[in-house]
């Protein structure tokens, strides 16, 4: 293949999340999160795994940052654990919690790596969940206060901020089908959570902007939803329903168009939308500078009477069939289709023009195996499937850019193997292998490959 070059100043980096890597869940004043509770609930997480230790990044961050520098990363996206900053979700700020992120940011900058902060990656303080969590308007209001508290310590050095990571997961998986924390199964709760997550984003965006933040956004996991049969009207209707629940319910209000009427009609079949108050949509539409796009796999749907629907999509039962993925698949069982990323980026660029995009997560879980020794005696992890996955998706990003989509950067998921939520430690997404018994880090072949991609600014 011919060489491909990305635009000048294209951002290259990697991403992680606090609960997945930090550990130290009971140190320095941190309060419990919904994931501490959920992971201790029998049957919720694979073999009862928890994030108590994870990758011990809380203690090993300096070595991890040194490794990032060796891999040539220019940007590191990490999340701040709300329970470290406000153990109960409200009230006085815990200075020891902020101290950790203060040290992390200084260490990153000392290595020439730009810190990219995500304020919420699913680890809601348990005390707030006890009062309703994201089904309560109060949580949105407290989130804005928390955001300002973090900015007050880190704002002089961090340039890029995002409020939420994948509110679709927080709402539908946390409150709809219960496969993620807090484990509730209530369609009405899921829709209330969608709105309050967006409201929290809007309130935090206003507060952060007033405090002087220059680059501000949020991260979604928009879906590339495709019909099983492009000529079928029933399949087109299924696409519109799923697209409304996954994409338009977030993108439209965020960009000032308000909630789509067809989506509101669907929501009203499950819960009276009394949680939507006058002025809320204006708050949600506070201007952003960047939309993070997390992409892993497409979705193919058909409109079928009696279709099984999807548990994460309330109201699709009986009318939608989600087609099973076809190979090749990742170890998560997700279909590998880089073309879906190109389609998705082009769709967002066309439907929501003027909104700069960044790939804030993209990667694959594969059963990594230790291979031969390197000449210098360090272990080698040959993850050729991951290299092929990343290569294909970077080419998909490049195609979108060549077609005029404004994509500013690419952050691989994930820097480290880590606690993969309900899957525990059995699924590995990292470009760096973690031995959870010894905490030894070993860059995989994908890490070495990615270092070369960054150095060339291309493929």
From TrEMBL:
InterPro entries: GH, GH_1_N_CS, Glyco_hydro_1, Glyco_hydro_1_beta-glucosidase. The keyword Cell inner membrane does not apply. One of its GO terms (molecular function) is beta-glucosidase activity. The keyword Hydrolase applies. The active site is at residues 166, 361. It catalyses: Hydrolysis of terminal, non-reducing beta-D-glucosyl residues with release of beta-D-glucose. Substrate binds at residues 20, 121, 165, 296, 413, 420-421. GO terms for cellular component: cytosol. Gene3D superfamilies: Glycosidases (3.20.20.80). This is Beta-glucosidase. It comes from Micromonospora kangleipakensis.
């Amino acid at each position: 293949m011919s060489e491909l070059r990305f635009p000048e100043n294209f951002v290259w980096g990697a991403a992680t999340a606090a609960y997945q890597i930090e550990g130290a869940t009971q140190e320095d004043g941190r309060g419990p999160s919904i994931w501490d509770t959920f992971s201790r609930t029998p049957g919720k997480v694979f073999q009862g795994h928890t994030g108590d230790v994870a990758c011990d990044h809380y203690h090993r961050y300096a070595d991890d940052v040194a490794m990032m520098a060796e891999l040539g990363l220019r940007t590191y996206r990490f999340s701040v654990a709300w329970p470290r900053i406000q153990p109960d979700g409200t009230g006085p700020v815990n200075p020891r919690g902020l101290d950790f992120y203060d040290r992390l940011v200084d260490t990153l900058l000392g290595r020439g790596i730009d810190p990219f902060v995500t304020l919420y990656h699913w680890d809601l303080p348990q005390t707030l969940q006890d009062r309703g969590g994201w089904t309560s308007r109060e949580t949105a209001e407290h989130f804005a206060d928390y955001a300002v508290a973090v900015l007050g310590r880190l704002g002089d050095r961090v340039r890029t901020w995002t409020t939420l990571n994948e509110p679709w997961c927080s709402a539908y998986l946390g409150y709809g089908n219960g496969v993620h924390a807090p484990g509730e199964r209530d369609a009405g709760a899921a829709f209330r959570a969608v709105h309050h997550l967006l409201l929290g984003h809007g309130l935090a965006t206003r507060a952060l902007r007033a405090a002087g933040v220059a680059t501000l956004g949020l991260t979604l996991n928009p879906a590339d939803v495709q019909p099983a049969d492009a000529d079928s009207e029933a399949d087109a209707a299924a696409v519109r329903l799923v697209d409304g629940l996954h994409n338009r319910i977030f993108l439209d209000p965020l960009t000032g168009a308000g909630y789509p009427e067809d989506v509101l009609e669907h929501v009203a079949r499950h819960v009276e939308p009394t949680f939507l108050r006058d002025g809320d949509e204006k708050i949600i539409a506070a201007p952003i500078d960047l939309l993070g796009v997390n992409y892993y796999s497409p979705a193919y749907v058909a409109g079928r009477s009696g279709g099984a629907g999807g548990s994460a999509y309330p109201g699709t039962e009986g009318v939608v069939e989600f087609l099973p993925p076809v190979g090749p698949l990742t170890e998560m069982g997700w279909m590998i289709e880089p073309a879906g990323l190109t389609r998705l980026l082009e769709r967002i660029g066309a439907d929501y023009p003027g909104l700069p995009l960044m790939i804030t997560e993209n990667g694959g879980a594969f059963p990594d195996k230790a291979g031969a020794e390197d000449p210098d005696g360090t272990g080698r992890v040959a993850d050729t499937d991951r290299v092929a996955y990343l290569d294909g998706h970077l080419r998909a990003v490049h195609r979108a850019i060549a077609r005029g989509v404004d994509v500013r950067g690419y952050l691989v998921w994930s820097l480290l193997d880590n606690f993969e939520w309900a899957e525990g430690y059995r699924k590995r997404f990292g470009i760096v292998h973690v031995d959870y018994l010894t905490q030894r880090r070993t860059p995989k072949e994908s890490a070495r490959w990615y270092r070369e991609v960054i150095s060339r600014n291309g493929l």
